[in-house]
Amino acid sequence: SPSMNSPHPPPPKTLLFLTPSQFGFLRYFKAARVKISEYEIPQISNMQKDLTCRIREDVKLTKLATEAYHAYLAAYAANSREYG
Fold first, then answer.
1. How far is Cα 80 from Cα 73, in angstroms, rounded to an integer?
2. Measuring CA to CA, which of 8, 28, 42, 75 is 20 to 30 A from 34?
3. Euclidean distance between CA atoms 36 and 28, whole angstroms
4. Taking the model in full, what pTM does it have?
């Protein structure tokens, strides 16, 4: 854990779910030297439904999910010409 006197905040942590067709997206993170831990989840059919329910039930998670989605849209709009 970082020192209280550290001038740099700890890096944010993000959970990103990708389908096999989206794996190419990881190259942008790797090029930016973002630390990545990959996990394969073989049976994910109900996971999205369960996660959506949990997010809707938790005000903090709803806020974080909304902020993440807005950040994604802004980044996509800013970079879609460069990477598209």
1. 10
2. 42
3. 11
4. 0.45
| Cβ(8)–Cβ(2) below 8 Å | yes
- With a cut of 70, say whether residue 23 has pLDDT above it: yes
Tell me how far apart the alpha carbons of residues 48 and 57 are, in angstroms, rounded to a whole number: 14
Angle at the Cα of 60 from the Cα atoms of 17 and 7, rounded to 5 degrees: 85
| Dist. CA 66–CA 61, nearest whole Å | 8
CA 68 vs CA 3, 42, 54, 61: distances in Å? 27, 25, 16, 10
The CA-CA-CA angle for residues 82, 31, 14, to 5°, reads 95
Alpha carbons 67 and 72: distance in angstroms, whole number: 9
Cβ contacts of 65 within 8 Å, gap of 6 or more: 55
Q: Alpha-carbon distance 2 to 10, whole Å?
A: 7
| In the block, residue with structure tokens 């005000």 | 59
pLDDT of residue 83: 55
